[in-house]
Amino acid sequence: MNETAVTFREILPRLEACRVVAGFSVDKPEHAVPLAKALLAGGIDAIELTLRTPAAMEALKAICADVPEMLTGVGTILTPKAAAEVKAAGADFGVAPGMNPRVVRAAQEAGLPFAPGVATPSDLEAAIELGCRFVKFFPAEAVGGVPYLRSISAPYKHLGIQYFPLGGLNAENMVEYLKEPNVPVIGGSWIVKKKLVENLDWTGITARATDVIQALEVGIDNE
Fold it and tell me: Are 139 and 102 a contacting pair, CB within 8 Å?
């Protein structure tokens, strides 16, 4: 098994412990650190900072430098160059919406744990061919949710593939995904509300993170 699979295995216990990764974009670099700290205060210690704004790389460097206890992932990695850059900036892992072999190989070469996006059996087989055993299931709800995930994953169960669902997840359906044995962690953009960030309402962000963690404890731990 290649370095991508081995390296992700090393950080997987942290992802499994948190169970939810907060996904968001940052418009202003100065928002990055207080936002990360607000999520930590609410019990979420894993994030996916997307490369969708000009401020993303500066924000990534700030979080890695000032909030080292955060498991910092980067999303929307669409090019080999971006894969190398986020690793150099200090990212712990990366994900993408699709399955681009060039990006996967670049991440492997850089030593960046990387989960390509899959939505079909062909996507999944391409990822498996490159040694990936942890993949992003995207867009999860749009393609059929948990029933579809069960169907698409069944022929590959013996390979031990694990899935990171994103896209359309929320407080109402997150537990359903996490009950699946091959889903150690989910991602969600509903936790960080843009309006709260714009208003510098870090207490509000912390409250939302706390609500998610408490809901997970009720929905999973107390069954």
Answer: no
End-to-end CA distance of the chain: 35
SS3 136: strand
Residue ranges of domains in the chain: 3-217
Parallel/antiparallel/unpaired status of strands 93-95 and 71-75: parallel
**pLDDT tens for residues 204-213?**
999 999 999 9
Q: What interhelical angle do 3-18 and 101-110 show, nearest 10?
A: 90
**Given the residues 37, 48, 85, 87, the one annotated as active site:** 48
Q: How confident is the model at residue 10 (pLDDT cuts 50, 70, 90)?
A: confident
**Quick check: is 198 catalytic?**
no
Q: What is the DSSP letter of 20?
A: E
β-bridge partners, 164: 136
Class of domain 3-217: alpha beta
Q: Which spans in the chain are helix H?
A: 3-18, 32-41, 56-66, 80-89, 101-110, 121-129, 140-143, 145-153, 174-178, 194-198, 202-216
Q: pLDDT digit string (tens) for 37-71?
A: 999 999 999 999 999 999 999 999 999 999 999 99
Distance from C-alpha of 164 to C-alpha of 4, rounded to nearest angstrom: 15
Which one of the listed residues 37, 85, 87, 136 is annotated catalytic? 136
Secondary structure class of 137 (helix, strand, coil): strand
Residue holding tokens 């969600």?
188
d(CA 139, CA 167): 4
Instruction: State yes or no: is 48 an active-site residue.
Output: yes
In this structure, are residues 111 and 88 in contact, taking their beta carbons and an 8 Å threshold? no
